[in-house]
């Protein structure tokens, strides 16, 4: 839900209110390269993220699932397309598009919807999506992206992946994985995302060369030393990663 939480006075949220390192937007990734630019997910912090980056328009957005923290910025994106007289291009599995359309049925006036259940190519990347377990929230999609031998996965919302769902996580140069807490105490039936301790066990199994944890709640304080293994790090707003 982003940090700080409106209702919370914990040390992490207080530090974030001072525009500190713990101020976090809802999870999203901007890919930039000579062959093109696109976003993965468009949450309610889309406008703030665009302003922070100094961008006035993005044409292509890939969506992982139709929860508010990942699509809440779509109406603002569509509005920017209207004012600029340009069309946006949205990519998602058909069932995700169907859910988006139930929430925002007016979007096709400004956006073209592309169902990508069979994989697709964008900005030089070959992208394959697959369904992953999202706990009490049902299912999300993760994406495996490859270009010129470099392979990475964006898996922001998942927990307790099955053997089949883990298979695309093998052989990676980079895994970006959602981890809301360091150790979540809630009953498993109420949970939806890995915690850091569980994610570290997963990393031991799938062995990516590098891992970045994102989608973090106010339970994670970036000022702390969590003694993470080499090659594992915590994401922060504005972080830049070179791919390849």
Name the features.
MBL fold metallo-hydrolase; 7 helices; seven-stranded mixed sheet; 2 domains; Metallo-beta-lactamase, Chain A; alpha/beta; globular; 244 residues; RibonucZ/Hydroxyglut_hydro
Give a structural overview:
This protein is α/β, with parallel strands linked by helices and 244 residues long. The protein has helices at 11-17, 46-53, 68-71, 74-84, 94-103, 163-166, 196-206; strands at residues 29-33, 36-40, 60-62, 88-92, 111-115, 120-122, 125-133, 139-147, 150-155, 174-178, 211-214, 232-234. It folds into 2 domains: 25-123, Metallo-beta-lactamase, Chain A, CATH 3.60.15.10; 125-244, Metallo-beta-lactamase, Chain A (4-Layer Sandwich). The two termini are 31 Å apart. Residues 25-215 form the Metallo-beta-lactamase domain. Pfam families: Lactamase_B_2 (PF12706). This is MBL fold metallo-hydrolase. It catalyses: 3',5'-cyclic CMP + H2O = CMP + H(+); 3',5'-cyclic UMP + H2O = UMP + H(+).
Quick synopsis:
This protein is α/β, with parallel strands linked by helices and 244 residues long. The protein is built from 7 helices and 12 strands.
Helices, strands, pairings?
Blueprint: H1 11-17, E1 29-33, E2 36-40, H2 46-53, E3 60-62, H3 68-71, H4 74-84, E4 88-92, H5 94-103, E5 111-115, E6 120-122, E7 125-133, E8 139-147, E9 150-155, H6 163-166, E10 174-178, H7 196-206, E11 211-214, E12 232-234
Parallel strand pairs: 2-3, 3-4, 4-5, 9-10, 10-11, 11-12
Antiparallel strand pairs: 1-2, 6-7, 7-8, 8-9
